[in-house]
Q: What sequence folds into this?
């Protein structure tokens, strides 16, 4: 989000996308957990916000939430990113349906939007919100701890090998996964872009252009 400081409306959209992603994810998890686990609380920042994910969002434009609770059923872990992605597509559809054109979708890549593509304030905000949500959902599916994708991979691996258990220990308990994610998001080593943003562009940019 620091890249978007020169575009306040885009910054607001990215902030809404990050916290909106956290709330949507938590909402799905809430219904996928046994009743009474969290009492009456729906969203708890201390439980839902991953400090490193928040730093990633602030510096790189996209972040993640805390690893899902072991009590969250696997269908909830799978459904949460998919719900976020579906809603993001709907937001982008609304952007196009309203005839917004100051930030033309065919000219901007996903990383451009995450860095604060210029345009009319309302249009900037809506586009940044949609792209930010899409990036949040896609990142959550990456199979690296503490992301939801790792929990999904673990659930699929019914009989983990010794190598998988060692990977789980180093990537999860020793926070090597977080170090890898931050490096992939912050170090510009792929055509001037961090690896993670370059990979997100492969998905987000075609989605943007599909709405033209």
A:
């Amino acid at each position: 989000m620091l890249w978007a400081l020169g575009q306040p409306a885009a910054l607001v959209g990215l902030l809404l996308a990050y916290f909106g992603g956290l709330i949507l994810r938590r909402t799905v998890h809430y219904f996928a957990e046994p009743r009474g686990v969290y009492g009456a609380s729906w969203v708890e920042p201390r439980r839902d916000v991953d400090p490193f994910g928040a730093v990633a969002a602030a510096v790189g434009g996209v972040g993640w939430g805390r690893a899902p609770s072991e009590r969250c059923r696997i269908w909830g872990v799978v459904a949460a990113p998919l719900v976020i992605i579906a809603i993001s597509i709907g937001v982008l559809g609304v952007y196009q349906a309203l005839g917004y054109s100051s930030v033309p979708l065919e000219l901007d890549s996903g990383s451009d939007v995450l860095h604060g593509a210029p345009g009319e304030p309302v249009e900037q905000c809506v586009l940044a919100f949609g792209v930010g949500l899409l990036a949040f959902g896609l990142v959550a599916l990456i199979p690296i701890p503490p992301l939801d994708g790792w929990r999904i991979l673990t659930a699929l691996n019914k009989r983990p090998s010794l190598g998988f258990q060692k990977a789980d220990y180093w990537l999860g308990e020793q926070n090597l996964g977080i170090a890898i994610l931050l490096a992939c998001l912050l170090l510009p080593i792929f055509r001037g872009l961090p690896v993670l943003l370059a990979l997100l562009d492969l998905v987000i940019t075609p989605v943007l252009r599909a709405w033209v």
Notes: The chain has one domain: 2-210. The radius of gyration is 17 Å.
